[in-house]
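Technical annex, item 7. During the second reporting period the consortium partners agreed on a shared format for inverse folding records so that results from different sites could be compared directly. Each record opens with the tokenized structure and is followed by the designed sequence. A conforming record, contributed by the partner at site C, is shown below for reference.
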């Protein structure tokens, strides 16, 4: 049932949101010269996939987890995208392709070995990663691998159609601050 909702909402979001996606892409061209960010992430059953987002950091920023990146790397337009969570819109493509779900554990990088081990131990990697979920709406990020994996496991164990919609609604209405970055390097 949740996959059905993922398909309907991602397709609808991409079609209806196309003008917004196009506008953000054009503005992003002026901001960084390369508005779409692609990065290999850990998917379901540890399968790699290419996550797509709007670029919020300078092009030469190191490919690390957000909590390890410097706040100075975020562009002015990137700050707006992160604050409004519009940087996540291109991930609807990942959802449509079946690589992600709207609700699930945030996909990590392959070099986040501690988080991968914690998630593997709790069966979290058997689920599709998601754009939002319990950890995101409660400001739990990848800087606390064990707490994040425990929260992800709890969310997956309790996931229902009701909680699926609740996490989406909480995200859309601004609950959760998104991925943190370091205040200074």
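Designed sequence (site C submission):
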């Amino acid at each position: 049932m949740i996959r059905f909702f993922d398909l309907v909402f991602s397709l609808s979001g991409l079609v209806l949101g196309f003008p917004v996606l196009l506008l953000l892409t054009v503005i992003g061209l002026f901001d960084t010269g390369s508005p779409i960010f692609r990065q290999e992430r850990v998917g379901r059953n540890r399968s790699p996939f290419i996550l797509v987002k709007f670029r919020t950091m300078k092009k030469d920023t190191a490919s690390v987890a957000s909590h390890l990146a410097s706040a100075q790397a975020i562009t002015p337009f990137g700050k707006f995208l992160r604050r409004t969570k519009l940087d996540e819109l291109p991930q609807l493509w990942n959802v449509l392709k079946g690589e992600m779900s709207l609700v699930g554990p945030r996909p990590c990088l392959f070099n986040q070995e501690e988080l991968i081990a914690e998630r593997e131990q709790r069966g979290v990697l058997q689920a599709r990663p998601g754009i939002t979920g319990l950890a995101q709406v409660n400001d739990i990020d990848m800087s606390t691998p064990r707490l994040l994996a425990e929260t992800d496991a709890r969310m997956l164990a309790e996931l229902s159609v009701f909680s699926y919609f609740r996490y989406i609604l909480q995200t859309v209405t601004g609950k959760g601050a998104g991925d943190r970055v370091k205040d200074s390097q």
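The CA atoms of residues 39 and 51 lie 5 Å apart. The chain has eight helices and four strands. All partners now use this format for quarterly exchanges.
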